[in-house]
């Protein structure tokens, strides 16, 4: 019982701690001049972001407060399911299939809602445009969005993938922390060599950077893991990474 309680608490707070640690590391790394060659935007371009970093931090903290409340409610529901089933630790194969299911459910939920938020002028103007104020994304801006967007896409999407996969809270701790790291990485603004996410996931910092540009609003809706819905439904914009004359890299679309 105590163990379950600690898993539940960890499931709520670890992804938040992970968010600030991982994005904090990127904030530090981003200060190194030696890594400028891996930046997707020159330093000066951050001025294009119309919100201050303090506003972004506050906005993200509001999202995370929502996350905690919904996670609390979620774990309360799961707790009532009976204790016996939860004491059995699933096999690694079962955990792996639960993780695949949860990634598929989260990707599907987020793709269609994210795309709809671009199709509906009302939703874009009043809700999703807030996330797009960061035309030059940076790591701790990953969860900067309207509280309703955070609630529906991230928190409810996360809850649904958790419930659909049948994972236990301990696997949930891992899944939510992993999804958090992946989302932060997609906004890091860097293309660092050796980043394993670039190998395993079509959606990554360059792919999502295209979406954050003005011309990218109709493409690359995938988040946070795989790009299959973009490919199936014709919203996939391939890109090349080219060296900028002034240094650093630029993710350039391969379509007009
Ligand atoms: Zn968008
Ligand atoms: Zn984004």
UniProtKB/TrEMBL annotation:
Belongs to the sterol desaturase family. It comes from the Eukaryota. Its EC number is 4.1.99.5. Keywords: Endoplasmic reticulum, Lyase, Membrane, Transmembrane, Transmembrane helix. This is aldehyde oxygenase (deformylating). The keyword Lyase applies. It catalyses: a long-chain fatty aldehyde + 2 NADPH + O2 + H(+) = a long-chain alkane + formate + 2 NADP(+) + H2O. Residues 100-235 form the Fatty acid hydroxylase domain. One of its GO terms (molecular function) is iron ion binding. It is an enzyme of class 4 (lyase). It comes from Colocasia esculenta. One of its GO terms (cellular component) is endoplasmic reticulum membrane. One of its GO terms (biological process) is lipid biosynthetic process. It is a multi-pass membrane protein. The chain crosses the membrane at residues 12-29, 50-78, 90-113. Its main location: endoplasmic reticulum. It is found in: Endoplasmic reticulum membrane.
